Amino acid sequence: MRTRRKVPVFCSSVPTTTSTIMLSNPAFIVLLFLLNIFSLSIAVTSPPFLVRQPPHELLYQESSVNREDRPVILECEAKGEPLPEYKWTKNGQEFSTSGSDDRVAQEPGKGTLTIHRPRDIDEGLYQCRAENSYGISLSNAVYLRRAGLDTFRTENTPEEIVVNEGEPLTIKCNPPSGNPRPNVFWILQSGNGAMTTVNGSRVSVDPEGDLHFSNVTLADASGDNYYACSAFSPFLREYKTGELKKLIVNPSGSAAPHKSAPTCQYTSPRHITAMRGQSVNIYCVYGGTPLPQIRWDRKNAPLPPRRNSLSDYGKVLRIKNVQFEDAGTYECFASNGVGSVGNHAFTLTVESEPYWITAPEVAMKAEDEDQTFACVAGGVPEPRIQWFVNGTSLENLPPNDRRRSNGTHITIARVQKDIDTDNFQCNASNVHGYIFADVYLNVLALPAEIVEPPAEVSEAVEGSQASITCRVYGAPSPRVTYEKDGQTINVQPGGGARYEIRKNGDLVINGATFTDIGEYTCIAKNRFGEKRASGRLDIKRKTVITAPPEDIERKAGDSATFRCSATADPNLDVQIEWLRDGEPIKMGQNGRIFQNNDNSLTISQATEAHSGVYTCIARTRLDTTEAQSTLVVRDVPNPPINVRAMCEPLTATVYWEPNGDNREPIQEFVIQYSTSFEPGEWRDIKAGIPGTDLSSTVDLSPWVNYTFRVKARNQIGLSNESNPSQEVCSTPPDVPYKNPDNIQAKGTDPTNLVISWTPMPQIDHNGPGFYYEVKWIRADPDPNAQRIEQSAIVSDWHIGSHTIPGQPTFVPYDVKVIAHNAIGRSRAADAPAVRGFSGEDKPNEAPKNLVASQIIDGKTVRLEWEPVPPESVKGDFKGYKVLVTPTGEEGKPRQVLIGPNQNSAVVDVLKPASENTIKVLPYNSQYDGPASPALQITTPEGPPGRVTDLRAYPMGRGAVLLEWQPPAEPNGRLQTYEIELYEVNGMDVTGPIRDPTVIYDMNQHSIKLPGLKPDTTYRVNMYATTSAGRGDVGIVEAATESNRTMEAMALLPPPGTPELVLSGRTNESIIASWLPGKAASGGHRTGEYFYIEHRREGDPGWTKTSAELEDLSTEIHGLEPGTPYEFRVVAVEGMQETRGPIRKETTEGARAGDGPFYGSSWFGWVIALICLLALLLLICCIIWCCRRRKRKDHYDVSERERLQQPAPHYYEKAPTNIVTGNIPKPAIRPSDGIVNGDENASIINGEGLGSEADSMEEYGDPDQPKMFTEDGSWIGQYANTTVRSNDAVVTTTVQPAGSTFV
Known about the structure:
Domain Ig-like: 48-139, 152-231, 262-349, 354-442, 447-538, 542-632
Radius of gyration: 55 Å
Keywords: Cell adhesion, Cell membrane, Disulfide bond, Glycoprotein, Immunoglobulin domain, Membrane, Repeat, Signal, Transmembrane, Transmembrane helix
Region (Disordered): 88-116
Helix content: under 10%
Number of strands: 97
Structural class: mainly beta
Number of helices: 5
Shape: flat
Membrane topology: Single-pass type I membrane protein
GO cellular component, one term: plasma membrane
Distance between the termini: 129 Å
């Protein structure tokens, strides 16, 4: 037994940062698996190896009375044989749970520590050690760090900050320290404690917590609120608030916003070091008015593709998963059209913590074999490699001639079980951290074992690489060979051979064929033993894409569909998957990309971003195959780039470069401008520039700062905008070039004059000191009258009107509005004046003598009245309003406008067949005058309006269903509906093709129009009529369906559910009518024809009527009186049927058998008693007849024979057994209940055979020879008897007997 060695604690060599042990190493996981399986049969000794260990760093929250206990768990668990024991160190010293209080406990059988109610004394560097007699395994060193958040250093009095409107501003924060570092943000806090976060495009917070306003507006003033910096700890879930800041903003005093060039407020350091695999944020915060736009660039290279993103409105460049190739110079540019462009450069250097290139792996060797461990790591700076054995540095171990190391590798030659079974540790470290691996060498002497035998059946597809699993274990490593169907497989050494045996023991067959099907045996052998295991290999047909997708070209907004189908082995299920540019497609993303039931892929409303290579993958559980196609989407152009401007005093030449037309040539460019008057607002200044031009000159207005951008247009549409030009064109001032537009003069009340205009935008001011000069003069019709021009100054350019009170009513004025600025008056100052009027008043006279001179029809009447005097209108006389109010319409009256020079009118808005109240009043442009006395007119009936909600649906191949609602304006009592049918062929309309269909039932709102041709379009004209004739026509079109094959009919969706209505019931019939329903699946599948199913209530089966092809109703006959029935209507469309809900109805009359005793419990006994009495009476009659015959001495045979009548034609006489005298009973016909033979025939038993009253000739056929003589003697040994049954002749043979009748 190997003795346990005392080993120094490994702590001083471990840096304070940690790394994970290589538990994810595949060889290590396989080894664990092998050991667990093998341990079932034999105990394999091994050094310990850790399967659970703590992370590099753990945070904890110090316990308190008012806080829930959050215990700290330091995991440590190892495997090994014998089971390892555990020890912990803290800060390099032995740490024992027995010496601590009950807060610290170690899990039994494991090394896991749990620290309850953690305190500040628990902070430190911990490491777990697992040890048995074969080695010592070490965990990561975990730094247990106490989390905390300090408080702000604040003043008692809030700080006041005063700033001018439009200027940039930075407010300092000085956030508290914390572990982990807290997140810093700013809030706006009200007096009642309510808080809102501060954010927006003009507001930024830098990594130090300072708040930056790019430019301050009046809305940023805090008022009664305060700005406050806040720090939040996600781990502790608590935040602290800093000193309150009161922000006071002084207005600029100018209508135009203050403009300032970009000013740097915060940028990241010029030299930035980023860690490989992590993210880095580069800040570029600029202030200015208008808000500067930030653009990022990288010298001599593009920004890292797919790993860069912008945040905080472009002020922060974030690079994710930084790689060494991301090193370089990055630049940000800030521009707002004012002054020069601000820029800042950053040099990014990428370094790295150590990372594995080749990590050591667990090794199991037999004695006398060599073992080499590799520990190759990368990192910047280059890591330092250290080796340890059982936690002891390699330099501190005794010399060993069989062990040598070159720094990155350590080799042990001719390993020995009791000497070299150890744990080996490798540590790679630099200034940024370290990585640490703990592995072991286990020297064993074990017979060959197959720990994972071949599967019972292994499968592969033809042409692929087939694999038969056979994982072996042993020390030394077993040699593996294979047999197929009892024959040894010859495996050629070297790559590329058809058969290969891998290091783990698996057999690989390259290019498998159907000849490889068979039984395979794996043989594992070493010097201690041999094992065998077998399994079968089955080869399947490979999957083939039979219809690959095709290349597609579409324009943006169109849909594209890729189709793909494949075949596979009958025993394999094939699935179709899709990739785009090698990446899986997220189906349903934005509702645009989805896979259909037939596995086709549809991209709806495609954009240029959808262009790419699409891959169809046909996958089974054994193989995959793929086919590619390309989607090209012609989209709007990309925005132009490198927009520049060359400025002249009142012109600018704008230059640009195209940036890709997205597969559709550029047709034109559009130049847009933005000014300092309206920052961020963009308008077209020139369009229609040919797509081949890369520059254009535009005219500018005086005293404006211009910034330009360009858009490109192709046949698909207009591109997004380019970045603004870095140059700002500032023009010199000049006088205004124009006066305001839309000048009007109009009073708003009877005593004023209001002069209005459209305010001129600042771009038309052309200089500072802009104002309006308003002039007006009364336009007296007397040319000799004195006219005095008056004027007023309006200094606020936003204002668009001037009111002059105290003016006479409705007097003409000539007015002007002239634009001025500090340079001078407008160039259009001498433009003609605009004529207008002062305010109007209400007219004061009503029209008189309103009469109806003629009633033309139900809607139209001719009216006449006396006109009002023009001076009574008191304004601009517009004319007369005729107001018509039909009875029942008490709301807004119907109105007709009549010119001012008319005193009569034909009015056609009356309601037919109603009483109408009519008034006439004068009006001017502002007021209505008094109305005339009311005139009452009763109108006759008129033609109705058109029917409403008129719809037509196909009912199969030969009919159309028409539905409607009555006219909204019946204009009288409706009498009929008339339907005309026309045939439509393209633009030609033929018809009517049949006599009109007239409907007299005004409650009917649907009809089936049968007898139509398949696949034909019909136009239906429908009229409602009154006594005044037809009304307006309602028109609808519908097409019958085409003839279909049986397969197509089977695919039709089911028709809608019809509604059944029952009426007209009698004793034995009922009328069923129905309304077709619309299909739930969409569309209007109403049913091609219908039939009715009915049954007596409680019966299991249904009786159905014949199909109704012409109408929507049918009459059902053959019902029983007074009987409850169930009915339902069935709609048929192709091969589909839809049954409507069941309706119940009882026929008229009394039910058969109804009476006072019907259904009584003793009714059956009464019937039985009557039958018994009838039977007794029949027996008595038979006995009486027999006795009467016996009294006769003889009878006249000839007379009897003369009176003998032939049997009815349906009589079928059964043969008689002469010996026994038994006569079978005649059969009863089920159709009429009559005995086969004479209706009066008696049932005679054997006693009557000797009666002299009987004649044997009765039983013979009158057309055949007689078998009996007069005395009844037998005249032959054999005789044939023939009887007729339904005109067929039946012959029977009568056997002879040894006696005669007496």
